[in-house]
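Appendix B, Record 12. Input sequence as logged:
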Amino acid sequence: MYAITGITGHVGRAAGNALIKQNLPVKAVVRNPAKGIEWQEKGAIVALAEFHDAFALEKAFSGANGVFIMTPPLFDSEDPLKDHDLMLQALCAALIKAQPKKIVYLSSIGAQHSNGTGAIRKLYDMEKAFNQLSIPTVSIRAAWFMENFSGFIASAKESGKLQSFLNPTDMAIPMIASRDIGSLVAGLLIQEWSGHRIIELEGPCRYSVDDVALIMTYQLQRDVHASAISENEFANTYQSFGFTKSASLLMAEMNVGFNNKHIIFEDAGTEHVFGNTLLEDALRSELMG
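Logged structural output:
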């Protein structure tokens, strides 16, 4: 049995579906019982657990051949780093007691750094915590999510301007589609290994925001041009999305880290894997909607 957290999101859903297609037993770990119904209908077992609840997590993870862990972004938290640390304490306590055979978890490009990464700092902490466990683990350091651009499609369609936290807009960076992360998760969960691995994951090619604008121009059949958001406006822009001030400041710092190339793959001592999904394919449903 494979326990999947975050199964109602893009990555967890892709992982869960990939395992079910192989007729492998899945336990969907959800916080809201209503969101478990579709997984019950697919034949999965449903377990209810909050990330702060060590007892419920232990119950969810017990007897698992493998566990996938993806913690929430905590955009609504007044202190995301502290709240995430409390989650890590509960997760580690549960994993130590449950003793699943292996752990696959979602980290991020840049998670090798303890500072200058903003929101990614949570994942540096996760890697350090999970590396202390005696259970085999894999950290998936995923590149910039291609789906991060989805939220800007409506305004680009209306105004012809694609807002960008990445600056300069012609800077190509590693990107990855959620479906490719989920596919890798499923593949890793059925593997056997020992110790602690780090896999750095990106798509088949690297893209700039100018490339994204060109794809939108073609798909939307109107001119779209990339427009860099001023660094001084990063935090305010995130707050306009409904993020707390603390979460907004962390996201702002993260984007600065991408722009000054502090947030890059570590390369040394890691495995490097490439997904198959092109950016235009990752965004096609949103662009054509």
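The chain has one domain: 2-288.
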